[in-house]
Amino acid sequence: QGDRSQGDRSSYQGSRQQGGRPSYQGSRPQGDRPPYQGNRPQGGAGYRKPLDIPKPDLTDVQKEELGSQRSENRREFISKDIDKGAKREQRKETPRIQTGKASRRSKTPAIDFSGKKGVSEVLSEDFILNEFYTDSGAKRKRPNRQRKGKEIPTKHIPPRAVLTSITVPEILTVKELAESLKKTSAEIIKKLMAYGMMATLNQEVDFETATIIAEEYGVKVEKAIIINDEDILFDDAEETDPDKLVTRPPVVVVMGHVDHGKTSLLDAIRSANVIESEAGGITQHIGAYTVKINDRNITFLDTPGHEAFTSMRARGAQVTDIAILVVAADDGVMPQTVEAINHAKAANVSIIVAINKIDKPGANPDRVKQELTQHGLVPEEWGGDVICVNVSAKNRENIDQLLEMVLLTADLLELKSDPNRQAKGTVIEAKLDKNRGSLATVLVQRGTLKVGDSIVTGATVGRIRAMVDDKGNPVKSAGPSEPVEILGLSDVPEAGELFYAIEDERVARHLAETRKFKKKEESMNITPKVSLDDLFKQIQEGNVKDLNLIIKADVQGSVEAVKQSLEKLTNEEVRVNVIHGGVGAITESDVVFADVSNAIIIGFNVRPGANVTDAAESAGVDIRLYSVIYNAIEDIEAAMKGMLDPTFKEVVTGHTEVRQIFKVSGVGTIAGCYVLDGKIARNSDVRIVRDGIVVHEGKLASLKRFKDDAKEVLSGFECGLSIERFNDIKEKDIVESYVMEEVKR
Q: Minimal CA–CA distance to 147: which of 85, 73, 86, 103?
């Protein structure tokens, strides 16, 4: 019906676009299909618009019946569509009516349309209401056809779980935190950057940081309880079976102020003189002793009494049952006495007060009791529960009465333990012996420790090759409350560490390596170089924030005591940081470590070798040597305050090696020596160094070259010498001579 000219299509009068298919503006017939003027639905079984037929007015009852009828029709349609097998059987039994042609590609037989209804009959009112009329719209979906032999699956969408809490360890990476929160790592990193933390995917964050990030998403965080190999290997369950428990000796610690007579009292108890071996009368490290009283054993621990050894005394109180508090009758309660009282109370041990030095003219025991009352210790005679005994360690007065009070208190405590369990205890002291290796004094607290057992303490492991008691006698086993010295550890353990006996030595070594690796990760902290002489200047310039120290001492307990004392000097401007502490002489590796980490080496009763001193001078490492801890504290404190101005400086003049020992009656011990370097002079101060440990300091009594007295002997020559009030000199000892020179201000 268009208006274009019919022919060779040379010109077109219509408004259609030129090219492609022609556009028709009219309602031309589409192909051979008859034209439809009505508003019929376009397409197949897709979206159909409702026919423009007026909706009948129905009552509520009719609508309900219509809905049920429509549902029934749909169920019938679906059931017919599902049961294809039944239809196929029905077709086989019913003969076909060949009125049409079957499709070549389809196997479906031809359909008989003779009985079908016409369009006008189909579009009845019921059909329209059932199939086309809906309340919500006119969208009609084709029912899903099911494969033969299968039921229609019902799709179930579970409700999405809401994350409300997570459990994380103490330390975790950003990636692990993101996985726990069900978030991407990039999102967690953005949150951390918002708090000023530049984090990467594998960077570790602590529990507090993880808690803050989780709270951003409304998630609560709980700390994970990690059960590691140690919890499985170490049976720390309480002893509950009374049939397996036996009475054990009490462990007693002697505590008190400086010079109040703690060592003298212990010496009076065990009838052995140990006072002369202590520098300046001050106990330098812990010793453990067993005393037998009335066929019963008592184990004593002698802890240092002054404030510098706070950590060591605290460790001693943690392994004891009874504390004997020694107070001088003439001095009364002093600051370290109060500190000892606090440690004993914190450790929950019974306290027995020994009021010492009652033989002195100014002794006043009643004043001591009055002062003790001010700190919560009320004597029994004053209505309290604290036993007070007046003793005199010098005259051995009332010592037996004090020990009876110890046994009575032990009976009231009912101290028992199971000797047949896995051995467990505490390292009281440890040191390195050149001939025997690592030695450790341990106190067995549970079970029985035997020769041949594999033990692990901290990062140290080993198999016990030998054990000796406090009197030096070899023993095969040690039960609860028995102190022994063990031989066979791979390294010097730290004093205060717990030890456990483990059946499998390989498991013990694996555990020790794991602990050592963790400890190594936490130990590195390197800062710029610093020396003690210009420390205050660098602090003022802002170059020093941390003062790194390396401590070397003769025994492990002294290392901890020096560390504890020096770390207390930390102030707002500088932080004292002990990066390493060890037992033994100062070595070249210590100098290298100090050079790299810019640390000062503090030596306590140890000496460096000649090669170590040269290496320290070339590297610019400051080495400070002390025999009394107070001097170290004063020097570092003065350097931090800018008041370090030493008047004298020690200058080492030479080293002499002892080659042979001669015993001369009426004279004493003469040492035949060879001067290794420098010189040794008659008026020199000397110190005896054995295996890197200072065993004596004093003056020369004589110096001879052959039979003649000599003022000095130079390097490369032999000489004979003797030392004032010291005869315990041995071959291979090093005699270090030195003089004190005044330093100009």
A: 85
